[in-house]
Structure formats: structure tokens, C-alpha cells
Design goal:
Shape: globular
Helix content: 25-40%
Radius of gyration: 21 Å
Order of helices and strands: HEHEEHEEEEHEHHEHEHHEHEHHHHHH
Number of strands: 12
Structural class: alpha/beta
């Protein structure tokens, strides 16, 4: 079966009406991806991981947790996934070199080229404007290096058994964005997402929903319809409310996925309707309250935090990373919250047990640990020991 067909089947056939968790550094670890899926996310992106570090990893079956772990040369966990998310996980990579990108991607494909067992899609980050990415000529720096982009994407497509996608930002002019989009499409990627902001813009700046026609009107239809999800993303809302671009998308056979400024569940549908896109993606909306994916509406934040901590316990997530994500949730609603009772209590938590106690999950934590201990004792595999986690320095 063609790998694109395989991914289409596992995601329900196409991206029409799909709501997607965007890649988020330090936030998009396994507990958040599972939480988003619990609430209704159809596809979940992992956080961007740098190719050079991924290349040093070894793949380990963590039988005690029921996860697959990628451990770097310093014995630190780089990436953790599990069977539950196999059909919806997109692995995003930061890279500036085709050879390194291929070596890193092959690490994530389980048993070499036997199939895309651990992840569904390899995605290349071409839109991050932050220094840690651009300083290595990755992320948004690639937008001005079309030859490098072509080399990376075509190398991956020629050599990998799974689909390849990428995510970009808007360039200075519609013509430049269009030229890059057409080139990426010719590289035979399965998807292209375009963050609807320009490189200098930051999250506080409104995204542009109005220029979707400028980026998509000349993108050729996928005649074979094999690449059902070759997307040209695009652009978010501006104050003019001019949505004429939607007329162009309505006549296109290529599906479009839109990313940006989705802050409540209804925004998914509004973004699709206003732009003509077939799918919508959110980052900050999910970071602040992952129940944004529930069509019934947002849950109380306390319940969301409890559900998140449950996933942290089950997946043995690093306490520093877990605390970081919870702080991001509560700071959105009260910038002074970390100085309050809850914020101070979070800071005092030294392990997942104390975090569980803070969120009234002590019994749940004890039950999970008992089950894990029994399973470990019964398993004679050398990989049964729990592999401990992220470098604590990456999340204070």
C-alpha cells in the first residue's frame, strides 16, 4: 500500500473538517498530545526536534510504560510516543541539511525502512523565527534558501517510506510566497502548512486570513489525487474582513489547512469557512486550554489541568516539563497567578507525586505506580526499566 494511502486511511481518508494540534516547543510532548486527542484533536504534531540531536538517538521499547523512547547519547529522552497515537502523530524536525534530515528521520522509523511504525509523517519546520532555530539556518531561514528546501524535501521523499510535509510562514510578498509554495508542491510533499504571519511578526500580532487567494490561486490541482493533503495554508484574519480568497479555494481540488488565531472551538469552523480551508490548526488556544478541541465547549481549567497531570503520570513525563506546561495554562488567565497559592505550590513540586497531590490525584498516582511496578517485575526485558526523561534544564 502506498504510504500516502496508508496515512489517508489512518486519518479517516482526508483532512476535511479536521482540527489539528500545532507543533509547540516544550508544550507538544506526549502528555499534551494525548490530552488534545482525548478532547477531540484529529492529528497532533510533536514539538520541533533538531536533526543533529535526533541523529544521536537510539530507539528503545519502554515496556514498563508501554511507550517507545528515543534516547540521545547523553541518555536523555528526546522523544516519547506510544501505540495510542500511532495513527495521528506528526514528527516535526528542525534541519538545514538534507543528509542530516534523512539520518534523523530514519531513526524515527522504527526498524529502518520496514514502515512508518512510530510516526505517521515527517514534517520539516521552515517557519520558526526564533533565534534557537534561525541561528542554525533552520526554521524561517530556510524560506530564503529554496535550493536547500528542495534538497531536503526531495531527499526525504526519495528515501523514506512515510509521507513528508513542511510548515512555512508568509514571505514579504504574495509572489514570493507563491513561488516557494509551487516549488514545495513539486517536491511531492503530502502537506504544506503556512503560518499566516510574516517572519517579523509575533503571536501578539493578528494573523492574516485575507490573503489566502494570493498564496493558492495558482497552485496546480493534484490530478492524481494521491497527495490528498498537499496543502497551502494560509492566512489569517485582518480587520478588513475581505474574504474574497475563499472563492478561489472553493474551486480548488487541493485541500488547504489554515493555522493561526484559533482560540475557541468555534474558530476552527470559522477559519475553515472564512478561508475555504478544509482543516484548521491551533497552537496557543490548545496551550491555554486543550479542551478547545471539544465541540461541547471548554472545560473548567482545573479539570483540564487534572486531566493533563493524569497523562503526565501515566507517561512518566519529566516534572519540570509538566510544571512548565501547567504554568503556561494558568498564566494566560492571570499573569500574577504564579505568585498566588497555586503558583507557589507548583514551584515547590519536586516530582510527579507532589504534583499529583496538588491536583487531588494522589490515589490515581499510587495506582499507576503499583501497576507499573508489578509489570516491571514480571518483565525480564532489559528495556523494562523506566528511562528518565527530559533534560531538566530545558524547563525550569
Amino acid at each position: 500500500m502506498d504510504t500516502k494511502e496508508r496515512f489517508a486511511i489512518t486519518t479517516g481518508g482526508d483532512y476535511h473538517g479536521k482540527n489539528i494540534l500545532a507543533p509547540m516547543v516544550r508544550v507538544g510532548t506526549l502528555p499534551m498530545r494525548l490530552l488534545a486527542a482525548q478532547y477531540g484533536a484529529h492529528i497532533t504534531y510533536g514539538e520541533e526536534l533538531i536533526d543533529r540531536r535526533v541523529m544521536t538517538c537510539r530507539r528503545v521499547e519502554n515496556n514498563a510504560l508501554g511507550t517507545t523512547d528515543f534516547i540521545d547519547k547523553d541518555q536523555k529522552l528526546m522523544f516519547r510516543t506510544c501505540e495510542e497515537e500511532r495513527t495521528r502523530i506528526v514528527f516535526q524536525m528542525g534541519t538545514a541539511d538534507a543528509v542530516n534530515a534523512l539520518k534523523a528521520a530514519e531513526i524515527t522509523l522504527a526498524d529502518g525502512h520496514a514502515g512508518c511504525r512510530d510516526v505517521q509523517v515527517i514534517d520539516i519546520n521552515m517557519g520558526c523565527p526564533k533565534h534557537f532555530s534561525t541561528s542554525g539556518d533552520m526554521g524561517a531561514k530556510l524560506l530564503h534558501k529554496p535550493d536547500t528546501v528542495w534538497d531536503i524535501l526531495t531527499t526525504l521523499r526519495r528515501n523514506l517510506p512515510c509521507p513528508v510535509s513542511c510548515k512555512i510562514r508568509l514571505l514579504d510578498t504574495p509572489e514570493k510566497t507563491l513561488a516557494l509554495a509551487q516549488m514545495i508542491e513539486r517536491a511531492d510533499v503530502i502537506a504544506m502548512a503556512v503560518h499566516g504571519r510574516y517572519i517579523p511578526q509575533r503571536p501578539r500580532d493578528p494573523a492574516h486570513w485575507d490573503r489566502i487567494s494570493e498564496a493558492s490561486q495558482f497552485i496546480a490541482p493534484d490530478v492524481a489525487l494521491c497527495c490528498w493533503f498537499t496543502a497551502v495554508l494560509l492566512i489569517l484574519r485582518d480587520c478588513s474582513g475581505d474574504l474574497s480568497g475563499a472563492q478561489v479555494v472553493a474551486g480548488m481540488s487541493i485541500p488547504v489547512i489554515a493555522n493561526g488565531d484559533v482560540f475557541e472551538h468555534g474558530d476552527f469552523e470559522r477559519l475553515r469557512n472564512d478561508t475555504g480551508a478544509v482543516a484548521a490548526m491551533t497552537a496557543r488556544g490548545a496551550q491555554w486550554n486543550a479542551s478547545i478541541f471539544r465541540h461541547e465547549g471548554l472545560l473548567p481549567l482545573w479539570q483540564v489541568k487534572q486531566d493533563y497531570v493524569r497523562h503526565c503520570i501515566v507517561t512518566d513525563n519529566a516534572v519540570a516539563n509538566s510544571k512548565y506546561v501547567i504554568k503556561e495554562m494558568i498564566m494566560k488567565h492571570d499573569t500574577h497567578s504564579l505568585e498566588g497559592v497555586e503558583g507557589k505550590a507548583i514551584n515547590k513540586c519536586k516530582d510527579l507525586h507532589s504534583l499529583a497531590q496538588l491536583y487531588d490525584l494522589d490515589d490515581f498516582y499510587c495506582d499507576v505506580i503499583k501497576h507499573r511496578t508489578r509489570k516491571r517485575a514480571a518483565d525480564e526485558s532489559p528495556n523494562a526499566a523506566v528511562i528518565h526523561q527530559f533534560d531538566e534544564s530545558q524547563a525550569k
